């Protein structure tokens, strides 16, 4: 018996040694010294600080302590408001990570650094209350939905399923409020005590119960004093901190901004439990009439020439617009008034208008518009069902002449009749900050 026991222990030791020999080496983790950094105000603005990592051979991620972040060995941090901030650098390699934190003091406010068009849309801006409360657009079709991840060729919209109005009542979804503050980039999630969560997250919420409308309702308290971060680029993303999230919970708190305007925040996000799914949620300000697509908004009939009627447009992507005296009168357009739009910092920036009657192209097959562009490029026109944004058709046209009025026309004869009652225009499509455009004489012909 003793011999068998010794043989068994010898075999186990051999396996243990073999197992140790097969374990990969992860390398030496970084030290605190590797995470040291220096900083200094830039010459242009003392509220914009340049941070420099000591070890530039490691992955470097920065938390500026004001709700914003960055990545890279040398970065700029923007601090619009005076105060004391804890700035943390974390460096990574295959062996692990290390962090250091330093305190910086900003002496004075610089409100000009808050004049970001997207900040203003999200929070109401420094000229308003300093914060803005958003809610789920519950009585509008398509306020929540799901589609493929990655998105299909048709773009970011819930092509697999979209909720009808009030589809998720009594789930804990519609009574939530999401408050974005400009000061300190603070974020508050107010839940009224419960939330609506994906079934894949039920195990993370004690007390979660299966809801008759599928998925789970779970007890969850307010998440106050968190932060929001907008990361702008080809895909602008919105991240909220801590345990907070926006809308229907799928295990993530970073959202792609599909559209943002004064009265709409339309987000796309992934599913932590199923990487093949992309979820969508549409929000509106709590002061906005929740009425299945904004039927209280004014609508207009084509043609639109801006002479006797100045229609209301909605901008997105950081664009702005105004109706002004024609500053480029001549050539094919000597009319008195035109629409001026300054292109936002998003490549998808533009503006839309709602029409009274849904389009029918059975006889008048095209839409045309006069354009004065600062450069040649592409203009996109998109027709959408304002009650269900997953129903749309969009086409591009080339602007081949710059700094001159031209009329462009797009054939929409293949668009379904009686479906689309919103017209969106994207001058300077695919280019960020594409400049100032003038538009006039929007017609169907």
List key phrases describing it.
30 strands, 6% helix, 2 helices, Immunoglobulin-like, 445 residues, eight-stranded antiparallel β-barrel, mainly beta
Description of the molecule:
Residues 1-21 and 291-296 have low confidence and may be disordered. Strand 16 (223-231) and strand 17 form a beta hairpin. The chain has helices spanning 2-22, 117-123; strands at residues 37-41, 48-53, 59-63, 69-71, 74-78, 83-93, 96-106, 131-136, 144-148, 161-162, 177-181, 186-190, 194-197, 209-210, 216-219, 223-231, 237-240, 254-261, 264-270, 277-285, 314-316, 320-325, 337-342, 350-354, 366-372, 377-385, 388-399, 405-411, 422-427, 436-444. The strands form 6 sheets. The protein has an 8-stranded antiparallel barrel with strand order 8-11-12-16-17-18-19-20. The chain has 3 domains: 32-109, Immunoglobulin-like, CATH 2.60.40.10; 117-285, Beta Barrel (Lipocalin), CATH 2.40.128; 314-444, Jelly Rolls (Sandwich), CATH 2.60.120.260. The chain is built from 2 helices and 30 strands. The N and C termini lie far apart (99 Å). It is mainly beta.
């Amino acid at each position: 018996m003793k011999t068998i026991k010794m043989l068994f222990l010898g075999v186990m030791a051999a396996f243990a040694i073999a197992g140790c020999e097969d374990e990969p080496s992860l390398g030496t983790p970084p030290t605190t010294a590797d995470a040291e950094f220096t900083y200094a105000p830039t010459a242009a603005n003392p509220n914009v600080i340049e941070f420099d990592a000591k070890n530039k051979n490691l992955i470097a991620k920065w938390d500026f302590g004001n709700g914003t972040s960055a990545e890279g060995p040398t970065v700029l941090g923007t601090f619009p408001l005076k105060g004391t901030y804890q700035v943390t650098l974390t460096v990574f390699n295959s062996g692990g990570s290390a962090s250091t934190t330093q305190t910086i003091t900003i002496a004075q406010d610089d409100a000009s650094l808050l004049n970001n068009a997207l900040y203003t849309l999200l929070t109401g801006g420094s000229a308003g209350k300093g914060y803005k409360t958003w809610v789920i657009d519950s009585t509008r079709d398509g306020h929540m939905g799901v589609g493929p991840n990655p998105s299909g060729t048709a773009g970011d919209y819930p092509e697999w399923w979209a909720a009808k109005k009030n589809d998720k009542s009594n789930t804990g979804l519609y009574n939530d409020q999401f408050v974005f503050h400009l000061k300190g980039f603070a974020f508050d999630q107010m839940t009224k005590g419960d939330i609506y969560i994906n079934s894949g997250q039920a195990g993370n919420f004690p007390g979660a119960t299966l809801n008759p409308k599928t998925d789970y309702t779970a007890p969850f308290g307010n998440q106050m004093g968190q932060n929001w971060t907008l990361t702008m680029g080809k895909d602008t993303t919105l991240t909220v901190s801590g345990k907070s999230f926006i809308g229907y919970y799928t295990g993530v708190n970073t959202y792609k901004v599909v559209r943002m305007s004064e009265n709409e925040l339309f987000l796309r996000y992934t599913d932590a439990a199923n990487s093949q799914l992309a979820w969508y949620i549409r929000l509106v300000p709590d002061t906005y009439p929740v009425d299945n697509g904004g039927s209280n908004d004014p609508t207009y009939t084509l043609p639109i020439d801006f002479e006797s009627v100045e229609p209301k447009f909605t901008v997105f992507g950081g664009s702005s617009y105004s109706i002004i005296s024609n500053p480029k009168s001549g050539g094919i357009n000597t009319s008195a008034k035109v629409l001026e739009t300054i292109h936002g910092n998003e490549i998808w920036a533009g503006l839309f208008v709602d029409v009274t009657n849904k389009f029918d192209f059975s006889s008048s097959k095209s839409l045309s518009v006069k354009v004065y562009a600062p450069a040649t490029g592409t203009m996109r026109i998109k027709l959408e069902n304002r009650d269900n944004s997953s129903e749309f058709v969009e086409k591009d046209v080339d602007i081949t002449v710059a700094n001159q009025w031209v009329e462009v026309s797009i054939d929409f004869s293949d668009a379904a009749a009686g479906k689309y009652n919103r017209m969106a225009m994207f001058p300077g499509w695919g280019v960020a900050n594409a400049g100032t455009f003038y538009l006039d004489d929007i017609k169907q012909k």
